[in-house]
Please model this.
Amino acid sequence: MIAVPGGRSPGRARLAAFGAYVPEHRLTNADLELQVDTTDEWIVSRTGIRERRIVAADQATSDLAILAANEILRSAGLRGDEIDVLIVPTCTPDYLFPSVAAITAHAIGAHAAAAFDIQAACSGFIYGLAQAVGLVESGLAQHVLVVGAEVFSRVTNPHDRGTCILFGDAAAGALVVRDEDGGASGFLGFELGADGGKSDQLVVPVGGTRHPASEPFDPEDAFVHMNGREVFRFATRVIEDSVLRLLEHLELTIDDVDLLVPHQANQRIIDHAIGRLGIDPERVFNNLEHYGNTSAASIPLALAEARDAGALQPGMRVMMVGFGAGLTWAACLARYEPK
Model:
């Protein structure tokens, strides 16, 4: 990629296409009853999740990202060599380095593209969209792929009832394109933030420079550790606050939102947000029961399914909102404008 700021004619960013890939294997609540001390009724009543997808033994995060990226390209009618930048939000990369994005870009034929990962956990897709819009509207890029990809099954303790029931594997994303018609951006606004003071509430303790895997460690510390009560409290507050702050800044109300797509983490959190925001549940898209929490893939996976189900139509204003480790949060209001 070669780019000069302002080197292209003035343009705007459009949310133009979606695509997703989910592994074939389903891990149902009945399967989990044989794995940990739990029941289907207990899981559904507390989370809303009935099943989640799990990668095959020979699949890694980049394998999922490649399949999702190709699906986005197919949907948009583009070739890989037309992509200027590929961004992969993930917190479960193949390796510490190289990036999942670099591996994915090579596989889809985006050989001249810039490629990098970003790490904002379940908020990562919206963080990635903000990066994409900045690149497009500054004139640095014309086509940017943002592909959230996660293999949480590899970092989840199969014997920890508090986490193994929640997470699944998937990849999904969106294409942001430059439109030179001179109109207003298809992205109305973003609200992003982080509270690093709560970073220990959702963490994988081992594998980084704080505690390298080369040093002795408790095997359980290689898995996700989560303070469920604190994360739940954070999520129920931050979803409402983030959405309302963004709408207030834009001088809009929840009635101006055609579809709300929240991070698919827990049905209780989603129901709480629906009630506090006062939005009609019919204008909220939810696929949590089939996939569980797929972290950075969660929101784009829901967007792709909402499109396929007819719940997301061209021209609609869609509010995306997420939260995750960091602790991070993110909201974005955009128009869906298919290429």
